[in-house]
Amino acid sequence: MICVQLMCGSVEKVVNEMGVAKDMGADVVEIRLDCLEGFQPRPKSEGVQYEGDEKSRLDALRLAGKLGADYIDIEFKVASDFLVDATLEQLANTKIIVSCHVDAENSSIEDLNHLVYGMQSTGADIIKIVTDATDITHLDKIFNLLSHRKLPMVAYSTGVRGLISQLLSPKFGGFMVYASMGNGSVPGLPTLDSIKQAYKPELVNAETKVFGLISKPVGHSKGPLLHSPTFRLVGYNGIYVPMHVDDLKEFFRVYSYPDFAGFSVGFPYKEAVTAHCDEIHPLAKVMSVFTFGNFDSKKGVSVSLFLDSIGAVNTIIRRPTDGKLIGYNTDCEAAISAIEDALREKRCIGDPSILSPLNGKQFVLAGAGGAGRALAFGAKSRGARVIVFDIDYERAKSLALSVSGEAHRFEDIINFCPADRAILANATPLGMHPNTDRIPDTLGVYELVFDSVYTPRKTRLLIEAEAAGATIVSGVEMFLRQAAGQFNLFTGGEDVDASEDR
Fold it and tell me: Which positions fall inside the Shikimate dehydrogenase substrate binding N-terminal domain (predicted)?
């Protein structure tokens, strides 16, 4: 079931929000009485500020049962006394949820199983365990509890690192998924709208394959809105979720089982994640299945010659035959083809077999990280002259050397004088906004300006570039094209045996 948590200050607002939640598709609402002004039903030890009379609090919950509440959530430490004192009349049609807040980081699986056994012995109808995750790897204990439940169980973790404990709960047999009414206003709780539109927990089961974005942060990701519905569209049993990862090594160690079948890789891990891949695919085989439109097989070959040098991975597949992690880069062709198509459209060049419009052009690149490396090698493969600017000058020099280009300090981009009709590509995570002092003064000289940032669709850089007369390409174009390549890999559209090409 999908449960919306209502944290309203007045009874009137609770009633109104209940109606809204029902209309939006919620199955049940949890009314947080401790949020009502003047009525604090939970003790301070359970995370709120109630310090009143315990008997009055429990009497209020018994009355809730008598008045027809479908569920009552009672803390484990008082559950036995509560159930002994309650009459059959008071709880005739009410199911009891016995809950407990746990420090999962410092609790072993054995500790948690012992706790669950004690909670079951109270006579509970449903067990609920809540933790405060300080790392996404701690959620594996929650999934273990759900998989070995004896009673219906709700188990999740709060905070941004706990989000997948909600989204993947149905896969491991969870009884209920929590959602919020607002726009991500409660960290770790998906919104009801995203639950209904993107994740569809009623369709998730034990056989569902898990894919996700490894990044830090992950709140900006549009991947779930794209991949999860598309999985359903083609009849593939998969779900795509945001994964806030702090430690790559520990993440891959804990989530090593086959059902965690593939990952997108975002900032800041596109370079670092290569150390955790068993193999790096050269991309040549993948090219033929990407739906980029104007694709030239000869250019595809030239790109493949550069992939091992890119040193950045944005897609990982767990090979079903042996569980090895195979790294790919779908950013390279996605970004370059988006830029080429925009130039061809501007120049009314319809034949993609004609020499790339980037050939011989000056390609000015801001940022030498994972996305920047993909852009640099892609541009080089098309015959462009690459000039790299980065806040880390040594990193800029390293990338420039790899593509036979030039390196400059990032602050010099403001006054840099590009060649006539040059290309400017931004591969920094900030999209040069709101740091307006970092936007070049020479935008009008560039023929085209590309921004890898896709939220918002038009960054300040693109707005100013368009006003200066340049053709602009949004990061949305790159995002959609690289996602097409990822989707083929996720769903088995490409043979991922990369051993011969390592």
Answer: 213-287
